[in-house]
Amino acid sequence: MLMEDDENKIAGNSHDSISELHSDNVPSILIEKEENVVPDGGWGWWVVLGSFFCHFIIGGLERSSGLLYLYFLERYKQTAAATAWATTIPSGIRLLLGPLCSLLCNKFSSRTVVITGSLIFTVTLIITAYSPSLITVYVFFGFVGGFGRSLSYAPAVTMVGTYFNKRRGIAIGIATSGVGFGSFVVPAIVELAFHFYLFTGGFYILACFAVNLCVCGMLFRPLEKQRKLMAFDKRRKSIKDGAEVPLKDTKTFISHDSLNEHSKDTSTKVELSNDEKMVLRETEDETGVVTDSKFIGITERESPFPDNPREREAFQNGSVKNGERNRKCGCCGFFKTGAKSSGPKKKYLELSLLKDYRFLCFCIAIMLFTLAFQSAFVFLPAYGKQIGTTDMEAAYLVIITGVFDGVARLISGTVLDLKNVKRFRVYVYNTVMFLVGGMSFVIPFTRSYSQLCVVCGVYGLLIGTYISQKSVILVDLLGAEKLVNSFGLLIAFQGVGMLVGPPFAGFLKDIDGRYENAFYVGGSAMLMGAVVLLISNIRHLTMSRNKKQ
């Protein structure tokens, strides 16, 4: 199993302890203490794979919004501003509902939320295929479909951030690079699907893409279950190897072989190396398990690993609930909660994070930045057609941007994780925002298809760095434990920019019939966002120096 690959790391990071607890004068044994460690690999790479394809599907479809804009414009014959709402609403709702998605992930699990969202998203695409008017598209493709996208998107980012620590930048870079590769593949498929199967058939094919998000969600095993599985695998391996476990504060040892011996009596004697004896107490269905919130033990009645293949598969997939006693699955007896957690109550939604000045400035900067970011992808194919390109050449503009976007995500994640670069990550990110804003002013000055392709390539490199490191910057600002809630708030700010940007740019196009002004206004908003983040960084540096003095 992949989880066994990280045993040595986990053993090095955790503090194993074995102690004796006395209840009714009958001593029990605590086998192992579990620390809040992250796998930094193992099953985490499967989480990265699931997140990659979530980004591939959702990001690829949203990067195809410029093509969908042209199909909506052709089918419903509405103004540019009204049509732009059809592609803007789902992206905006996906981001605006970020706090709600964070709440649901805390309440249930990322796996449940993603699977539910994918089913909603799939159904709305099928309904859109038969939409009689643009208003119907707003409701189902926009609002309801945006809700489904939101449930599938946010957990795909936060799960990777919680599974990794030292290699967080690289892991998130790989996961979010799915958007870049999706931008390379999906627009071409959308163009071909709508060309050969027309409007209705094209949306059926998009629905086939969306339903695959269910598979991605199944890979998002909850981290707490993964920690218990890692501890169980570690213990199972030590038992198989015949290792011995020391007792805390004594010079005695318990043989693992003795822990696996079965007895028909209500109590089991365990022989110690110094001829002393201990009793493992049997309670109800289980024996030998003593668990106190963060402790993990081994059942004495059940075998160390289920013999039934179905039970073994269920256990490995994390399908059993913590502390649940279920005779149908022999593995459920491995984990037993002996006491309720005494830690602080988990908050489902933390609006108090907005009191942090740097985080608030980061949210405002991202909101201003997104005003132009989505407009560029909505109107880039339309601008290409304005200067005389064909439909397929216009689609290639999105593909080129997506390819360089994906490459940048992989490279930026690796570079910004370097030891000498990591502490300057926020400032590098700020610089990238200034560069993207400048590139938005360059796009309207291109007058040939080859020039536009080059600009799109550079634009994709910068955009890939900006998007992929967003959650990494959040961890640098607030810490990994705040990632789920802070990311939900951040994308809510981003959703405001996503909703306002493209319709406003479409309104400018309706005034003079050209798309250049949309890029000028967007570039100005990007630069304003970069200035806001720069002010917060300067303030932070000044305060840090004053504290040192």
Description:
66% of the residues lie in helices and 6% in strands. By secondary structure, the protein is mostly helical. The N terminus is likely disordered.
Proportion of residues in extended strands: 5-15%
Radius of gyration from the CA trace? 27 Å
The unreliable regions are: 1-35, 244-306, 312-343
> Helix and strand succession?
HEEEHHHHHHHHHEEHEEEEHHHHHHHHH
* Strands, count: 9
Strand order of the largest sheet: 6-7-8
In percent, how helical is the residue content?
55-70%
Q: Termini distance?
A: 51 Å
The overall pLDDT average reads: 74
Structural class: mainly alpha
The number of helical runs is 20
**Bulk shape:** globular
**Largest sheet, described in full?**
3 strands, antiparallel
